[in-house]
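Title: Request for sanity check on Aspartate carbamoyltransferase prediction

Description:
We are preparing a figure and want to confirm that the structure record we downloaded matches what your pipeline produces today. Could someone re-run it with the sequence below and paste the raw structure tokens into this thread? We only need the token string, no images.
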Amino acid sequence: ADSTPSVHTGALRDRMLFEGRPQLLSVDQFTRESVEGLFRVADVVQPIARRQKVSRVLEGAVLGNLFFEASTRTRVSFGAAFCRLGGSVCDTTGFTFSSMAKGESIYDTSRVMAGYVDAMVVRHPEQGSVAEFARATNIPVINGGDGPGEHPSQALLDLYTIQKEFARLGKIVDGAHIALVGDLKYGRTVHSLVKLLALYRGLKLTLIAPTALEMPSYIIEQISRNGHVIEQTESLTEGLKGADVVYATRIQKERFVNESFEGYKPDFQINQALVETVCGPDTLVMHPLPRDSREGANDLSTDLNQDSRLAIFRQTDNGIPVRMAIFAVLLGVENQLQHSMRDA
Ligand code: CP
């Protein structure tokens, strides 16, 4: 029997709308039901992501990847996801290599791109800027990270990873203890992730950060519902006790303009000694990456690389099926996927 999971997403595309059009700007667009619908599409495309099957469902379509900030994972995995569905990709990276360097506006850039491509992924250093791209065009725009704002596709692949790992461990998301560590002020991945997690019930969310880098209060207010217990602490050892997931983040030095890093203490590093002392055998250690491997960096040590609790590369692998699912839904081909698949 065919064990391929079924899509049956119904009107999923109708629920991935921003201002009435299929766009992915913020996780605020999701309900728990629509997140889980998207994850069913990600399950369906897994054989294509693993190259066991092929699909040309987006044949002839072109993706515009517009990245005005550094990226490896988001840019390449969105591109790879589009190609795996049969489409092709045009990239522009950095302001220097776009006509924005000559003073072109977001509005003009976006209008022009709509004549060339079928969808855009945009990363830009200013919060709210990707929504500006979206408002100027009639093609789907995906937020690949808008300054310290949001990174919705990263949060979706993080939650997808948590669900997959929990299924293996016999756990569920409802009632879990998730500890988020590091730069919770500027880290856009954690802004999106806590809002998605808040769609579930009865979580303990421990926010571990120095005072200077605490989670913005408007996000804490937004997630204070559904019976969640939210604790803020500067103590790493206290905060990690009993955690099912430790989600570490890099200090976003590029967001500091008139501030110093003095408030960020070296003892915020997640390393083998700490995990052995404070965490359990099933605790997952996650990070959106990149982790900072330079001298004096203090987010996630490489000494955990051989520890099976480290889920970071399983996270990055899950970026492909989740991003394929996002394209399939935004471009309205999710119900054609199963019929389009053939053996590789
Ligand atoms: N996680 C993430 O956004 O990685 P990149 O900056 O490499 O895209």
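Thanks, this matches our download. The domain at 152-316 is CATH 3.40.50.1370 (Rossmann fold).
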